[in-house]
Write a structure and sequence with these properties.
alpha+beta, four-stranded antiparallel sheet, 7 helices, 4 strands, 40% helix, binds guanosine-5'-triphosphate, binds magnesium ion
């Protein structure tokens, strides 16, 4: 079984949507094997999105991700990385398929409700940034 890293973003926690999103995740056959609510520090957000540091939206992205609590998660399942990307839908909700998290809940390309790792290597890095091994209970 594969693991991926997920964040339920500030626009989702603000609107009390974490349970509704978790229901979609679980219905898709992904198991939530670790989960905690945190308020990301600026440093955590800058490290997490380091790959985007030269993009024009970087400042706005860090501002948004630290604007309210988030829920960080580890999801486990068959092909969890690709499956969760599919369940989230396209980055821009205008392009997201019906039934996906972003189509149902995202407000904009920035405030798009969820993050999911894009590859095995990034999943491992992202999980390690937020969880100790003994916090993940499969
Ligand atoms: P993640 O799962 O969050 O990594 O989304 P993604 O892989 O679908 O998108 P990408 O890695 O390209 O961008 C990371 C995040 O940056 C997105 O989820 C958005 O929250 C944010 N983002 C991307 N493009 C824009 C943009 O044009 N404007 C703003 N404000 N934010 C953006
Ligand atoms: Mg990405």
């Amino acid at each position: 079984l594969e693991r991926t890293f997920s964040i339920l973003k500030p626009d989702a926690t603000r609107r009390n949507l974490t349970g509704a999103i978790n229901a979609i995740i679980e219905k898709a056959g992904l198991r939530i094997v670790a989960q905690k609510r945190i308020h990301m520090t600026r440093g955590q957000a800058e490290t997490f999105y380091g790959v985007h540091k030269d993009r024009p939206f970087f400042g706005e992205l860090v501002e948004f991700m630290t604007s309210a609590p988030v829920v960080v998660q580890v999801l486990e399942g068959e092909n969890a990385i690709a499956k969760y990307r599919e369940v989230m839908g396209a980055t821009n909700p205008a392009n997201a398929a019906p039934g996906t998290i972003r189509k149902e809940f995202a407000l904009s390309v920035g405030e798009n409700s969820a993050h999911g790792s894009d590859a095995a290597e990034t999943a491992a890095q992202e999980i390690a940034q937020f969880f100790a091994g003994n916090e993940i209970v499969g």
